[in-house]
Amino acid sequence: MNSGARGRRRFAGAALRSLRQSVGIGQAMMAARLGVSVSYLSQLENDDRPITGKVADALARAFPLDWTLPDDDTGVQRIESFRTAVADPLFADLAPAEQLHRIAEQQPDLAERFIRLHAAYRRAEEQRQIIDESLSSGVPGDQRLPWEEVRDWFHEAENYIDPIDRAAEALAETLDTEPIPESLLIHVLKVGYGVETVTAGGSEQPDRPLRRFDRERGVLTLDRAMAAETRLFFLALQLATFAIAGPIRTVSESAVLSDVARRLLGLGLANYAAGALLMPYARFRASARAVRHDIDRLSRRFGVSFEQACHRLSTLQRPGARGLPVFFCRVDMAGNITKRHSATRLQFARFGGACPLWIVHEAVAIPDRILVQLAETTDGVRYVSMAKGLVKPSGSYSRSPRRYAVALGCEVEHAEAFIYADGLDLGNAAAATPIGISCRLCLRERCDQRAFPPADRQIVIEPDVRNVVPYQVL
């Protein structure tokens, strides 16, 4: 290797030593997990040797959530980005990982171009799916409804809004308690903003709104029939609309959206701020890692609902301190996806329902029970997913309760940090349920649950042959 290539190598001894100490293991165990000798690890930690591609790959596999590269370590960051790109199943037949790392080290310009090309490919693939879904559903892609504009805006923002999240975290620090009690929020609203909180409604007034704020009188009215977690969230929402008004207004006004969508985005950002207030970023992220993302334990610790905790996990995308890369969605009784976000390679259908083989549909019919599933999408990526059916009482026999399910999952490589993977046969590819995005986009030729043929494939009808699906996909 020439001197220029050697000069590009980076040292990260302090970061490596900090990682080992933070996870509480000695040099011998760390060396074993990385597949190196103790003496070699000692040299790495003392900056006597640079972080090579092979070591970077071992660190990424052994500590996917804990290994953070120094900000100025552009060489190692390039290798990590290159490693992530070539991990796409599209490149499954490429050279061995060690050889690819040498390419990233020795030909940085080529690696950078490959990384950008792969990112462009992923964006183009998402756009193709959007167009395919639009055509097959009869909904023109340029005629989005306001809520679809807002949904897409949050997706493009990776479901993380930095100025609002940090402002909410700072506000939570001033309250200095965990979980934040309802009485404290009521007190802060009264003393700080002159807002009186009252409860009303219930079984005698079933049509009363869950929440109403009278700006002229300064009175916040909450329905006494709703769950305590929902009431706490609405109090946090009201406080956020006052205390974090500046960042919310700045972000919403800068969004390139229609007028109605921009107003709807303002409401969405206020809800985002409420969740960030009740579940401050650093504390929530640390707690989630400590309990391996056990939603029930997180809900109890922060005084929030199961769904709120799941949703918050999907927002942990702060640069330099990201959480477990998960997908999150909410599905109603009809199979419609009413909330969705993915920090993984899994992308949800924009129109219609999700794959019927996905465990979330079964969870809708079985409330208060957690179901788990190992699934594999058509691109060969495997996921561990958890789904739970939930019921929100209406407070009156005359109104049906809301029934739906939430799902949360991660790619199988992060299974060690996801408690719901325990007990699954992760090493057995045959144990994974084959799923797709939706029937209109799924290319699986043999699927007994198919509702529609793929939008871009022709079908053949054989009058004398009948399978479960009455046609063959070409």
Give a concise summary.
The protein has 474 residues and is of the alpha+beta class. The chain is built from 18 helices and 11 strands. Strands 5-4-8-7-6-9 form a 6-stranded mixed beta sheet.
Task: Give the beta-strand count.
Answer: 11
The proportion of strand residues reads 5-15%
Note the run of SSEs as H and E: HHHHHHHHHHHEEEHHHHHHEEHEEEEEE
| Radius of gyration using CA atoms only | 25 Å
Described by strand count, sense and barrel closure, the largest sheet is: 6 strands, mixed
Counting H and I runs of at least 4 residues, what is the number of helices? 18
Helix content: 40-55%
**Ends apart, CA distance between termini:** 50 Å
Largest sheet: spatial strand order: 5-4-8-7-6-9
Stretches where pLDDT falls below 50 for ≥5 residues?
1-7
Shape: globular
Alpha-beta content class: alpha+beta
Instruction: Indicate the mean pLDDT.
Output: 83
